[in-house]
Amino acid sequence: MTLTPNDFLKIAVDVATQAADLARTARESAIQDVDTKSTATDVVTAADRAAERLIRDRIAESRPEDAVLGEEDGGAVGEGVTWVVDPIDGTVNYLYGYPWYCVSVAARVDGHSVAGAIVEPVSGRVWTAAKGEGAWLDGRPLRVSTPESVELSLVSTGFAYSRERRTAQAAVAARLLAKVRDIRRGGSSALDLCAVAAGWVDAYYERGLSPWDWAAGALIAAEAGAMVSLPGEDPDLGHDAVYAAAPTIATPLRATLIDIGAGGNY
Question: Tell me: the pLDDT tens digits for 42-79?
Fold first, then answer.
């Protein structure tokens, strides 16, 4: 049976909501069981693992033939449908009790996101998009902002876990700060992309992300009208760059980022 983007979206919302409930209710015990991954600052909690297992189990119940690619248990892109899962995006925020974290679930067909759901455990907000059907926050349509210039733009970004790379990224951010209204660093790439969709920021850029970081959020931003480029699509911004911006400043801000070295070798 062939599903529509809205059919995939219903599944994504359901499993993401269940995982968000688990993450919220399990936090106090989960943060007592913390490991690290790539660096000492790259953390994973018991709730990350449990939430991803829940999502995989629920997807397997309704779509056993589909592939799943997740942050904690890996996997691979399959032929046809692949579910791309971040059980808790913003785990450091989760660990500290800072409420800017989420569960992100996207359905990708032949390499393109067709549905995405991002659920915030603390606020309960549900961000959604289906390909060609627009983007929504709790059922309300989303639309990007219309800043007049780069100088009046609020830009969000993020930093890598590697100390060396983070230092280089911070230097770029410092140069950007002189070119824009201000910058923000929230700690969840998925929610930063949602913030672009809502017009809460005018643009977002970051390098070094994995597919589960942007698979749902990039679709939500694009369906809200943002100009979006993903890793491999804009080498001048960096081979691993994610960029989402309001159309009114997308081109000049991109030029500014390139000029200050955002696409450099780091």
Answer: 667 888 889 999 999 999 999 999 999 998 766 766 67
Q: How far is CA 61 from CA 10, 54, 55, 70, 74, in A?
A: 14, 11, 10, 17, 19
Tokens at residue 226, please? Answer: 């943002």
- Residues 242-266 have pLDDT tens digits of 999 999 999 999 999 999 999 999 8
Q: Are 204 and 213 in contact (CB under 8 A)?
A: no
CA–CA gap between residue 157 and residue 183 (Å, rounded): 7
Q: Is 190 helix (H, G, I), strand (E, B) or coil?
A: helix
Rg (CA), the chain: 17
The residues pairing with 127 across neighbouring beta strands, listed in sequence order, are 118, 137
Closest CA to 198 of 173, 217, 178, 176: 217
- What's the half-sphere exposure (Cβ side, CA atoms, 13 Å) at 140? 6
Amino acid identity of residue 263, one-letter, is G
SS3 177: helix
Q: Amino acid identity of 219?
A: L
Task: Output the six-digit token pair for 195.
Answer: 């913030």
